[in-house]
Amino acid sequence: MEILEEKKNKNRPYEPILEGIPDWPVYQLSKNRKEFIETVTRKSLERIKQLRPTRKQLIDEIEATAYREQNRIKRNRWRVDPKDDSKFWSGIKNDLVELSSKNQEETGAKEDEILERIVNRYANEIAGNFKPNSYRVTREVIKFFFQRLLNGARVKKFGAFFRNQYTLRDKIQIVGKVGMLRKLAKQGTVVMVPTHFSNLDSILIGWVIHSCGLPAFIYGAGLNLFNIKIFAYFMNSLGAYKVDRRKKNLPYLETLKMYSNIAIQKGAHSLFFPGGTRSRSGLIEKQLKLGLLSTAIEAQRNLYLENQHEEVRKIFIVPVTLNYNFVLEAPDLIEDYLHVKGKDKYFPEQDKYGSWQLIRFLFKFFTKGSNISVSIGPGLDVLGNFVNEDGQSIDSHGRIIDTKDYFISNSNITTDKQREDEYTRMLSNRIVKEYHRINRVFASHIAAFVAFEMWQKKFPKLDLFSLLRLPEEDLEIEYAEFRETFKRVRKRIYELKGEGKVYHATHLKGKADKVIKLGIENVGIFHLNRPLLLNKKGNIITKDLTVLYYYHNRLVGYDLEQHI
Amino acid sequence: MTLSSISEKPIGVIGAGNFGTVIANILAIHSKVLLYARDERVVSQIRDKRENRGYPIHQNIEATHDLAHLARTCDIIFPMVPSAHFRTMMRQLSPYLHPYHILIHGTKGFDITLPPGQTIEEIPKLTRNQVKTMSEVIQEESVVVRVGCLAGPNLAKELAQRQPGATVVASHFNEVIQVGKRLLRNDRFQVYENNDIVGVEIAGVLKNIIAIASGALSGLGYGENAKGLLISRGAVEMVYLGRALGGDLKAFLGVAGIGDLVTTCNSPMSRNFTVGYRLAKGEKLNDILADMSEIAEGINTVRIAKKCADHYKVRALITDRLYKVLFEGMTVEEALEFLMRYPLNVDIDFL
Question: Which of A258, A551, B82, B200 is most buried by a 10 A CB count?
Answer without folding.
Answer: B200
